[in-house]
Amino acid sequence: MFDLPSWWAHLVSWLSGHAVEPVLGALHLDGLSGNPDDIAAALLIAALQLAIIGCVFRPLETWFPAERWSDRRLTRVDRNYTLLMLLGIFPLFTYLVLMPFSHLLGGGGEAVDPGTGSALALTHWVPWLDHHPYVLFAVYYVIYDFTYYWMHRTQHAIPWWWALHSMHHSTRQMSCWTNDRGSLVDGFIQSMILATVGLVIGVDPDEFAWLMLLGELVQNLSHTNVRLGFGRVFDRVFVAPKFHRLHHMLVDPERPTLHNCNYGQVLAIWDVLFGTALYGEAPRPTGVGDPIVDADNDYGLIGLHWVALKRFWVAVRQPAGWRPGEVAFGADYTPIPVGQLDLHALARPAPAVAVVADASAGDDAMVESAPG
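-> C-alpha cells emitted (372 positions)
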C-alpha cells in the first residue's frame, strides 16, 4: 500500500542531502541551529503551492475573470514576490527562525513524553485526539484559523500594524499572486503569533507547515481574480473569492465602513459569528483610497517594502499609531483618522470598460478601475 508519510519523508531526506546541505555548506550556514530537512520540506511545500497556483488558479483567472484587465502589469510584482517568498525567504526563515524558536520552547506537546511540550497541549487534555490524527489536525486548524481571524482584524485596527498591512491591500489588480504581497516585518509578526499559538496547543512543527500550506492555498484561491462562490450554504462556512474580494474593495464615500468586513482566512464562519460578514454586495474595484498607500503601485519589490517600513516607523513612534481606529497617512506618514478626511475628495472615477456578468449571483462583476 502507498504510504504517503513515508514517501514524503524520503523525498524530504533526498532533497536535503542532495541540494540543501551542500548549498548551506557553501554559504557557511550549516552550523546554525536548525535542521536542513526543514528547508527541504519548505521548498517541497512551496513547489506544491506554486504548481497549484500556476496550473489551477491562474487558468481560472483567464476563464472566469471577476474583472478583465487589458494589462496585467500590476500583478507582476506580486508574482515575483510570491516566487521570492516561497522559494527563498520563507524556507530560510523556517530554518533560521521558526524551527529554532520551536525547539527553544520545547516543540509540540507530545503525548509520549509528559515531561515535554506545552501544558496546554490539546492531547494532554484530550488524549483521545492523539489516536485520531485527522480529527486532531482539524481541531488544530479551527484554532489556527480563529487566531488568524482576530489577528487580521487587529491588523486593520491598530494604525502602526495597518501601516505594514496596507501594503497588501494597496494592489489595484488583486490576483492569485496577491496573497504573498506583504511587508516582511508584517509577515514576521504574523508567523511568530501563529507559531506561538501552535506551540501552546501542541502542534508539531511538521504539522504546522501543513497548517500553513492549507491556509496559504485557500488564501491564494480567495485572492484569485475569479467570479467564484461556494453557494448559499458553503459561502457561510468557507471563504470564497467573491467573499474575500469584498474585503479588498475600495472605500465607498457614501458607506465608509462597508469594507470593514470578511476578515476570515479559510473559515467564513468567524465573520458570520462576530458580525463582520458581508454578502450580496455588488463587487467593487479593489485597492485603497489613501493616495499615500495607493502609491505603492508605483514601486518595485524593494521600494514597496521601503515605503511600508517608513509608514510603520513613523506610526509606531507616536501615540496616534497606537490609537485603535481606521486611518490614512499624511505626506510625512503620520496616521490621520479617516473621520477627519473628506472621502469624496479622495475618490477617483473609474473608467467604463466591459462588465463581466456573474451568472451565479445575478450581479455584475467588477470592472477594471482607475487607482483611487
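The first strand starts at residue 327 and ends at 329.
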